[in-house]
Amino acid sequence: QVQLVESGGGLVPAGGSLRLSCAASGRPFSFYAMGWFRQAPGKEREFVAVISWSGGSTNYADSVKGRFTISRDNAKSTVYLQMNSLKPEDTAVYYCAADGRSQVRFTQVTSTSARNFGSWGQGTQVTVSS
């Protein structure tokens, strides 16, 4: 298992920006596709973005496409989520997750399903005020 620690959450006004970071440790970071999910109060956890092991493939939820950018630095074992033009409906706890299935290792395969991510961080709160 890989251990994940998120940081960078906070309170921001609508239209503002935040960058979330997720530092990984414990196993080679390049073995994993990495994803971000979020969960708002009273709602189910939902997919936000995912990136393949090399960064060559990314996928986004329609609700964040064009506003959020996922990236990774394998040398630093860190994945990022740059969030621009934030809206109050982006308010949630954001979770970093790692997909270590054999089919994602050294391929551009990614998944948007939480059940394929075996390791999760503790979450970081993002609050967007109107």
Structural descriptors:
130 residues; mainly beta; 7-stranded mixed β-sheet; 4-stranded antiparallel β-sheet; 0% helix
Could you explain how this protein is built, in words?
It is built from no helices and 11 strands. It is mainly β and 130 residues long. Strands 2, 4, 5, 6, 9, 10 and 11 form a 7-stranded mixed sheet that branches. A 4-stranded antiparallel sheet has the order 1-3-8-7, with no helix packed on it. The N and C termini lie far apart (39 Å).
Strand fraction: over 45%
Structure annotation, total helices: 0
The percentage helix is under 10%
Taking all Cα atoms into account, the compactness measure Rg is 14 Å
Tell me the distance between the termini.
39 Å
What is the ordering of alpha helices and beta strands? EEEEEEEEEEE
Helix/strand-derived class? Answer: mainly beta
Report the biggest beta sheet as strand number plus sense, adding barrel if it closes: 7 strands, mixed
Strand and helix map with partners:
Elements: E1 3-7, E2 10-13, E3 18-25, E4 33-39, E5 46-51, E6 58-60, E7 68-73, E8 78-83, E9 92-99, E10 119-120, E11 124-129
Parallel strand pairs: 2-11
Antiparallel strand pairs: 1-3, 3-8, 4-5, 4-9, 5-6, 7-8, 9-10, 9-11
